[in-house]
Amino acid sequence: MAKTLARKTGWLLALILLLWTIAATADDTPKKVRLAYSGWEVGTAIAYIGIDGGIFKKYGLQVEEVFIRDALSAGVYSLIGVDFLIGFGNPIALLQPMTAGADIVSLGTHVSQVPYHMGVSSDISEIKDLKGKKIGVSGIGGRSDLLARVILRRAGLDPVKDVEMVPVGLSPNRVAALSKNIIQGAPLTPEIADRAKQLGFKVLDVKEVPLITAMLMTTRSFIKKDEETVRRFMKGYLAAIHFYLTRRNESIAIIRKYFSGREPETLEGMYEAFAAQLKPLPAPDREAAQALIDAASVVNPKSKDIKPPDLFEPRFLEELRDSGFLDELYSEKISL
Prior knowledge:
Largest sheet: 5 strands, mixed
Distance between the termini: 70 Å
Helix content: 40-55%
Strand order of the largest sheet: 2-1-3-10-4
CATH topology of the largest domain: D-Maltodextrin-Binding Protein, domain 2
Number of helices: 15
Number of strands: 10
Oligomer: single chain
CATH class of the largest domain: Alpha Beta
Radius of gyration: 25 Å
Strand content: 15-25%
Structural class: alpha/beta
Shape: globular
């Protein structure tokens, strides 16, 4: 009897140990998520730092990269079959589905502070004098268009109602259009602005302009379905930013794997350009977001009803900021 009881007890303990081992193994198995991207830019670089540096695995995720050739125009449809999407994309493609009720949302953005100037006709003394005038840009929703909209709003103008945006091409084309009075204002790069001044054009200086260079997107339905996975992904993403900013040589080595034919100076330049766009917390910028909405509303007037906060789900970044997660990553004081 005692032997039978001992044998049963032994089997029971063995079964408990087996179940515990299976559970522990299951807990240690990284959860698979799919991350789509459309090209190589700052967000893509951070994602690959997180993948190749083993950072996402540290937070229990196995990230599979999915290249989507036409993500810039596919917008929300790029998220079909994937969990996250890295990229900037065309603001019109991004906001059109939102206007139609799609649940796409941004978890964070990378913003670059861009030095730009406004070339103007001789009768313009300040930006607000451009009311009722034509502004030359590369194209609706393009870089210069978004920058111009921020500059105009800062001066109290509505870039949708108070001016007409005219696609005329790159900065040199815009200077040519100014000379013929086809347009009366045009955002110019610093180099082109200097040349324009030398040629006698009037150029107004403006404060640096925020420009969204990359967005990290998902859907609200995925957040609702698997909030903890989103939280872990954001931890890994912020940790990858920290790695990039604090481990320069190792980050360049990872980038080199994808640009093996590039000269070291080129890779270092790429690293520096991306580093300039990074903050420990990739929080949204209201001015830059409003520029996206303004551009989209030109094509679809319903887009103007979207407000900057509607584009973002900030609670994961706020949670990681308030929990002390960033303080654990960074030993020195950082600017958020």
